[in-house]
Amino acid sequence: MFTGIVAAVGRIESVTPLATAAEAADAGVRLRIAAGGLDLSDVIIGDSIAIQGACMTVIAMAPDAFDVEVSRESLDKTVGLDRPGRVNLEKALRLADRLGGHLVSGHVDGLGEVVHFAPVGESHELRIRAPRELARYLAYKGSVVVNGVSLTVNRVTDEADGCVFSINLIPHTVEVTTLQELKPGARVNLEIDLIARYVERMLSTAQAAA
């Protein structure tokens, strides 16, 4: 589990296919990630670290860096894990840690598209179009994870094929995460609120039983 509070911005330094060139289209990759200030002193092989909101398992360690393997399934359902670039990092939550954001599983539910990102006073407004299968989980003042960052939804506008939700980003969030690099048209990893997922399941089961 995670909180969606980014601990550091690291960088994917290398992307190595886990198969021959002929099989690469169906294979995963191995990533070497520079930790970017993330404290690795208590990280061991087998630990979980969220990378752009996707939970990955550490398979090798180096001074100020670590390796993970990303399956083709994960590559197909996320963005930002298939090429070198800056990434948001967060180590897995410990039971004694503060829950500064909200409960985050590190499982990307779908991809959104940035439709607007611009300054508003001292902050930034970020608007993202979410697909229909995720739209029902997004609510005013509810929680959502964007590229591993726990955020609060300020407004939701329903559309025929999904919804557009708006977020206010304070200067600190823009400064210490990769969200500062977003532009209209960019795709982002989305994880909907864990509690909303269970509420929907309970309600749908109760309706079916009735």
Secondary-structure blueprint of this entry?
Layout: E1 8-17, E2 29-34, E3 48-51, E4 54-62, E5 65-70, H1 72-76, E6 85-91, E7 110-120, E8 123-131, H2 132-135, E9 143-146, E10 149-159, E11 162-169, H3 171-176, E12 187-192, H4 194-209
Antiparallel strand pairs: 1-2, 1-6, 2-5, 3-4, 3-6, 4-5, 7-8, 7-12, 8-11, 9-10, 9-12, 10-11
Polypeptide structure, described:
This protein has helices spanning 72-76, 132-135, 171-176, 194-209, and strands spanning 8-17, 29-34, 48-51, 54-62, 65-70, 85-91, 110-120, 123-131, 143-146, 149-159, 162-169, 187-192. The protein is mainly β. The protein has two domains: 8-91, Elongation Factor Tu (Ef-tu), domain 3 (Beta Barrel), CATH 2.40.30.20; 110-205, Elongation Factor Tu (Ef-tu), domain 3. The strands form two sheets. The chain has a six-stranded antiparallel β-barrel. A six-stranded antiparallel barrel has the order 7-8-11-10-9-12. A hairpin with a 2-residue loop joins strand 10 (149-159) and strand 11. It is globular and about 50 Å long.
Quick recap:
This protein has 210 residues and is mostly beta strands. It contains 4 helices and 12 strands; from the N terminus they run E-E-E-E-E-H-E-E-E-H-E-E-E-H-E-H.
CATH architecture assignment of the largest domain:
Beta Barrel
CATH topology of the largest domain: Elongation Factor Tu (Ef-tu), domain 3
Largest sheet: 6 strands, antiparallel, barrel
Shape: globular
Q: What is the total tally of β strands?
A: 12
Strand order of the largest sheet: 1-2-5-4-3-6
Low-confidence stretches: none
The SS-based structural class is mainly beta
Terminal residue distance: 34 Å
Number of domains: 2
Whole-number mean pLDDT: 94
Q: How many helix segments? A: 4
